[in-house]
Specification:
The structure holds two protein chains of two kinds. Helix content of chain A is about 65%, strand content about 0%. By secondary structure, chain A is mostly helical. Chain A is flat, with a radius of gyration of 24 Å. Chain B is mainly α. Chain B has helices at about 1-15, 20-35, 40-55, 60-75, 75-85, 95-105, 105-140, 145-160, 165-180, 205-225, 245-255, 255-270, 275-290, 300-320, 320-325, 330-345, 350-355, 355-385, 385-390, 395-410, 415-435, 440-460, 475-500, and strands spanning about 185, 190-195. The radius of gyration of chain B is 22 Å and the shape is globular. The chains are: A mainly alpha, B mainly alpha. At the A-B interface, helix 1, helix 2, helix 3, helix 4 and helix 5 of A face helix 9, helix 10, helix 20, helix 21 and helix 22 of B.
C-alpha cells in the first residue's frame, strides 16, 4: 500500500517496522511470562500480569503496522515547539556529536570505575564541546568550573563516592 | 479541629527550619534557570533535581520538587515572550500571543500579567489541594484492592488517552512502562522476571536513571539531531521595563479569566496524565471561545495569556491531589514525585494523612510559599532575562550531560545505572521520532506495581472470579466507569466514520 519515496512514505515504513518490532517483542514477553511458575494453589502468579502486557503490546504492534500499511494513522512527530534545535544542522560534526554522546556515555558507563570520574568526564565533555563547535577556551573553562562544582557538591557535600580510578590515592 | 490546629503548628515549626528554606530557595532558583532556557522542560528540571533530593530528608525533597516545578513552569513564559521560544511546553499555548505583545512594546505587561495570574492560579490549585485531598483521603480509607485496581486502571487509561493525539501511540507508551515495571523479582513470590541473568536487574529497574535518560539525554539528542540548521537565539527586541506596571488593573479587568483558568487548570491537573501543558491549551481555547473580542487573539491581547497562565500553574497543584491521596500521579512530574515519596518511605495513600499529617500540612504550606515566592523570584528572573537567554546552549548541554551521569550514578553508586540512563535516552529519542509520548511510560513504570499487586490480591480474594471486581458498590461504579471510558474511546472513530458516510 506504500510505494515511492519521500518523508511521508519513509515515516510510514518506520511505523510499519516499529509495529512489527512491538508485535514480536509482545509475543516474546508473553511467552516468557507464561512459563513463570504460578502461586501454589492459585491460577495466577508472577507471569500473569506481564503475559497480558505482552499480549496487549503484540496486538498494538499488529494494529500499528496494519494501520501504517493501510496509510492511516496520526501525526508522526510530537507537536509543540518545545525543542528548539542547537543549530548544528545535518553536518558531519552534528552526526559525530551524536555518535560521541552515545559512544562516550557508553564508555563512561564501562570505564568510569577503572579510569575515574576526574579523568573520564573532562575528556567526554571537551570532546563533545569540540564536536559541537564551541571555542576551545570557553569549553575548557566551562568543563573546569562544572567539574569543580559537581565534584564539590556531590563528593564533599553529599558524600557520593564518585570513583577516582587511576587517581586513587592522589586525593 | 484540634488536630488541624496541632498539625498546622507542627507544620509551621517544620517549615521554620532555615536549612529547609534554603533548599526551597535554591530549588526555586534552579527551576527559574532551567525554565527560562528554551527547550529545557520543567520535567527535565525535576529529573535533574531528583538525584540531589535522594540525600535530603523527605520534606526537603518534596519541597524542592514543588518549588522547582512551580518556578520552571512560570519561567518558561520568559523566552516564549521575548524570543518566541517557549521555555517549557506548558508555555507553548500562548507563546505567539506574548511574543505579539513584545512586538507591540508590551513585553513587561505580558510577562507581568502571566506572572501574577500564575501566582493566583497556583494559590487556587494549592487551596483546592489542601481542602480536597483530606476529604478524598477520608473516603479512600474505605477502599480495598478492588477500588485501587480500578482507580489505577482509570488513571492509566486517562494517561494513554490524553497524552497523545493518537490513542494507539499513547497505549504503546503505557504498555512499555508497565512492562518495564515488571523487570526484576516479583514482589509476592520473589520469582525473577526478565532479568536476562543480569544481577543488577534482579532488584528491578530504578526509575530515576530511566527518567533522567528519557527526559534529559533524549532531549539533548533531539536538539543535536534537529535538521533546522542555522537557528540562533535572536537578540531581544527590547529591554523589559517595569514588570508590574499596570498589571494589577489588567488582572482586575480579566478577573473572570483568572478564576476560570485556575478552575480549569486544577480540574485538568487532577486528571491523570494531563498536567499543565494540556491545561494551558484548553484554557487558552476557552478564553478565546468566551471572549467578547475573540478577533484580538493572536494580535498581542493579554486575555488568553492571563487565563492560560493561571491554568498551567493551577494544574501543577491539582496533579498532586490523586498523587497524595491514591498514589496515582496526575502527570510525569508528580509520577517522579510519587517515586521520590516512596523512596523516602512516605508511601502515598490515605494512611499518609493519618500517620504523617504534619509533614503533609508542611507540604501544603510549601505549595503556598512557593507560589508566593514566585512574585519576587519571577520578577528577578524577568529582570535577568537578557543574560539568561545569552548563555550558550551547547555549553549548557555539556553541563547537563555531566549532571546526568553523576545523578544516575549517585542513586545506587553503580555505573550500571549510567548504562540504563543511556539506553532509556536512546529509546525515548527513537520513540519521540515515531510520535510516541514519553509521559505514559513513566506513569506506567510508577503505577505498574500498584496495578499488578492490587489485581493479584483482588483475584485471590475473589477466588479467581472476575465478577468479584464488581461486587463492592464503589468498585462496581469505578469498574463501569473504566469500561465506559474505553467503550467511548473505541466507539468514537466508528461513530465518526459512520457520520461521514453520505
Amino acid at each position: 500500500m506504500t510505494s515511492g519515496s519521500g518523508p511521508a512514505v519513509r515515516a510510514r515504513r518506520a511505523e510499519q517496522a516499529f509495529g512489527a518490532v512491538l508485535a514480536v517483542a509482545g509475543v516474546v514477553i508473553a511467552r516468557a511470562a507464561a512459563v513463570l511458575p504460578a502461586i501454589p494453589a492459585q491460577a495466577y502468579g508472577p507471569g500473569f500480569f506481564p503475559m497480558w502486557v505482552g499480549i496487549a503490546l503484540a496486538v498494538c504492534g499488529v494494529l500499528m503496522a496494519g494501520r501504517a500499511w493501510l496509510g492511516a494513522g496520526g501525526p508522526l512527530v510530537s507537536p509543540g515547539p518545545s525543542s528548539p534545535p542547537l543549530g548544528l544542522g545535518p553536518s558531519w560534526r552534528g552526526v559525530l556529536a551524536i555518535a560521541w554522546l552515545v559512544l562516550g556515555l557508553g564508555a563512561v558507563a564501562l570505564w568510569l570505575e577503572v579510569v575515574g570520574f576526574l579523568l573520564c568526564m573532562p575528556v567526554f565533555m571537551l570532546g563533545y564541546l569540540w564536536l559541537v563547535g564551541e571555542p576551545a577556551g570557553r569549553s575548557v573553562l566551562t568543563t573546569a568550573v562544572a567539574m569543580a562544582l559537581v565534584y564539590w557538591s556531590f563528593v564533599r557535600l553529599l558524600k557520593v563516592p564518585l570513583p577516582l580510578g587511576w587517581l586513587e590515592g592522589t586525593f | 479541629m484540634t488536630g488541624l490546629g496541632e498539625n498546622l503548628l507542627l507544620a509551621i515549626g517544620m517549615l521554620a527550619d532555615p536549612q529547609l528554606l534554603a533548599v526551597i530557595l535554591l530549588a526555586a532558583v534552579f527551576g527559574l534557570f532551567v525554565g527560562a532556557i528554551p527547550g529545557l522542560t520543567a520535567t527535565m528540571a525535576t529529573a535533574l533535581l531528583v538525584p540531589v533530593t535522594f540525600f535530603m530528608p523527605p520534606l526537603a525533597a518534596v519541597s524542592a520538587i514543588v518549588a522547582c516545578t512551580a518556578m520552571a513552569i512560570t519561567a518558561g513564559d520568559i523566552p516564549g515572550c521575548l524570543i518566541r521560544m517557549p521555555g517549557t511546553p506548558a508555555s507553548a499555548a500562548y507563546t505567539d500571543e506574548t511574543y505579539a505583545m513584545t512586538r507591540r512594546g508590551l513585553a513587561a505587561q505580558a510577562l507581568g500579567s502571566s506572572l501574577v495570574s500564575s501566582v493566583i492560579g497556583g494559590l487556587v490549585g494549592a487551596l483546592v489541594l489542601i481542602v480536597a485531598a483530606p476529604i478524598l483521603a477520608g473516603y479512600a480509607l474505605r477502599f480495598s484492592s478492588f477500588e485501587y485496581f480500578w482507580l489505577a486502571v482509570i488513571g492509566l487509561s486517562c494517561a494513554a488517552l490524553v497524552s497523545s493525539s493518537d490513542l494507539l501511540r499513547g497505549l504503546v507508551a503505557l504498555l512499555l512502562g508497565l512492562f518495564l515495571s515488571t523487570v526484576g523479582m516479583d514482589g509476592v513470590t520473589g520469582t525473577p522476571r526478565f532479568d536476562f541473568g543480569v544481577t543488577e536487574l534482579l532488584g528491578g529497574l530504578n526509575f530515576i536513571p530511566i527518567m533522567i535518560g528519557m527526559f534529559a539525554v533524549s532531549e539533548i539528542l533531539k536538539h543535536l539531531a534537529s535538521d533546522a540548521a542555522g537557528v540562533r537565539v535572536p537578540a531581544l527586541a527590547q529591554a523589559v521595563g517595569r514588570v508590574f506596571a499596570g498589571v494589577w488593573s489588567l488582572i482586575g479587568r480579566y478577573r473572570r479569566n483568572v478564576a476560570r483558568g485556575a478552575a480549569t487548570g486544577t480540574l485538568i491537573g487532577v486528571l491523570p496524565g494531563a498536567g499543565g501543558d494540556l491545561g494551558a491549551w484548553v484554557s487558552y481555547a476557552m478564553a478565546r471561545r468566551f471572549s467578547k473580542t475573540p478577533e484580538k487573539f493572536g494580535t498581542g491581547h493579554p486575555e488568553g495569556v492571563i487565563e492560560a497562565g493561571a491554568a498551567n500553574n493551577a494544574a501543577l497543584s491539582g496533579a498532586w491531589v490523586p498523587a497524595l491521596v491514591f498514589g496515582i500521579p496526575g502527570d510525569a512530574i508528580t509520577a517522579i514525585a510519587v517515586g521520590v515519596l516512596v523512596m523516602k518511605g512516605l508511601n502515598p495513600g490515605p494512611q499518609l494523612f493519618e500517620s504523617q499529617a504534619p509533614t503533609l500540612y508542611a507540604i501544603y504550606l510549601v505549595f503556598l510559599l512557593a507560589n508566593l515566592a514566585l512574585l519576587p523570584l519571577g520578577w528577578l528572573a524577568i529582570r535577568l532575562a537578557t543574560p539568561l537567554l545569552r548563555i550558550p546552549r551547547h555549553q549548557l548541554s555539556a553541563v547537563i550531560l555531566l549532571c546526568c551521569v553523576v545523578g544516575a550514578f549517585a542513586i545506587n553508586n553503580t555505573t550500571f545505572d549510567i548504562g540504563v540512563m543511556l539506553v532509556a535516552g536512546l529509546v525515548a529519542f527513537a520513540l519521540d521520532r515515531l510520535g510516541v509520548p514519553i509521559g505514559p511510560i513513566i506513569l506506567g513504570l510508577v503505577l505498574g506495581p500498584m496495578v499488578e499487586r492490587n489485581f493479584l490480591t483482588s483475584m485471590v480474594i475473589a477466588d479467581g472470579r472476575f465478577i468479584g471486581f464488581f461486587e463492592r458498590p464503589l468498585a462496581a461504579v469505578l469498574g463501569v466507569a473504566a469500561f465506559v471510558i474505553w467503550t467511548l474511546v473505541l466507539a468514537r472513530p466508528l461513530w465518526t466514520r459512520r457520520r461521514r458516510r453520505p
